[in-house]
Fold Cytidylate kinase.
Amino acid sequence: SDLINVAIDGPAGAGKSTVARMVAAQLGYVYVDTGSMYRAVTLGAQRQGLAADDEERLTQFMKSLDIVLKPGANGQFVYMNGEDVTSLIRTREVTGAVSHYAASGIVREVLGVMQRNMALRKGIVMDGRDIGTHVLPDAELKVFLTASVKERALRRFKELGQEAVVTLQQLQEEIAERDRLDEQRELAPLLKASDAIELDSSDMTIDEVVDAIVKMSRTKL
Ligand code: C5P
């Protein structure tokens, strides 16, 4: 039967990427992590010393920017102007600055066009902050995935394991601050679309969340 597009939005650390990747695998769809694109922009802009509010220079920068996403076994590879930046975009330096660059009009406009083009032929599971509200307002299924700040920080802390150079408290504050910036920005803020189904994953396992979304997807096919 027909292919659909699935939009998964929600705050930082709600498990969107993991869930979206697993849902895509089960449906045989392509997974697109839009956060990775904002991260790549942030890395590139930081390298060139561009400020997040320098719309003029960011416009020049965005013109020369090429981002390619390639699906891999354990996630998605990200290439910026031919360079594999998959792990470079996960540093705390990038994470701490990305919400500022994501507030830029030109950054959102250029990435939004790229994202809509990726979804034209459908069969996409796309995760982000504004997919259901702005990028793919016609997506057949929209999920707003949440979890308490405490639970999200705890998950991230466990993920970091022995590499953790931050305390749980610090992580909780960083996540809350990123949510605040994403929710309060002027352009395409983090917001549940009116027709999105909200899933609070605080007391759910990843498999339970994935099953629920796959089931909802199948009812739309
Ligand atoms: O999903 P991830 O946490 O990697 O996203 C990093 C940042 O990119 C978010 O905190 C947000 O500022 C920005 N973002 C966005 N719109 C999206 C996806 C991500 O503004 N669709």
